[in-house]
Write a structure and sequence with these properties.
It is built from five helices and three strands; from the N terminus they run αααβαββα. The chain is mainly α and 158 residues long. It has two domains: 38 residues, no CATH class; 99 residues, no CATH class. Strands 1-3-2 form a three-stranded antiparallel β-sheet. Helix 1 packs across helix 2, helix 3 runs antiparallel to helix 5 and helix 4 crosses helix 5. The longest helix is centred in the middle third of the chain and has 32 residues. The mean pLDDT is 89.
Length: 158
């Protein structure tokens, strides 16, 4: 049984009962359905859906924050009289095992202004990332591993 689909159906049912299909009503119905499903499927080993969905929401909020900060930083860099660019390429060792996780990580890095995923090694153990603000390669590598890769692993490889 796909709990996400059931949750969506509960959100639609909520909106139908209230007579309003506005996004806020659908979102409230989705959250209400999530709580009902969580209470219904209580056990010692919670279903994957109940661990992945909060992590996905947390990752989305984290990524939006990072996206806004990177856009502000690139805007300041572009508008400053002297562009303080320190371009560089960093090899980031990967702990992700699945192709989906690696592609997801590479896309999130590429979508963030100022960084670009260049290549993945043949053995899928290394990701090469270009950045326009390389001050310390180790700090940059650790930020990618701790901030991005850890969250992607929690979502994809649970």
């Amino acid at each position: 049984m796909n709990l996400f689909l059931v949750n969506l159906l509960l959100a639609i049912a909520w909106s139908a009962l209230t007579g309003s299909f506005q996004p806020v009503d659908l979102l409230f119905g989705f959250l209400l359905g999530y709580v009902v499903l969580r209470l219904t499927f209580r056990s010692r080993h919670p279903h994957q859906y109940f661990t992945r969905l909060p992590r996905l929401v947390e990752f989305t909020l984290f990524f939006i924050k990072e996206l806004i900060l990177a856009n502000l930083r690139i805007a300041v860099t572009i508008l400053s009289p002297r562009m303080q660019l320190r371009p560089g390429v960093v090899a980031v060792p990967l702990d992700l095992k699945t192709r989906a996780g690696i592609v997801f990580l590479a896309n999130m890095i590429t979508l963030t202004p100022g960084t670009l995923s260049l290549d993945i090694s043949v053995d899928r153990k290394m990701l090469y990332v270009h950045t326009v603000w390389l001050e310390d390669a180790d700090k940059f590598r650790n930020a990618i591993k701790q901030e991005y890769e850890r969250r992607v692993r929690e979502i994809v490889e649970v």
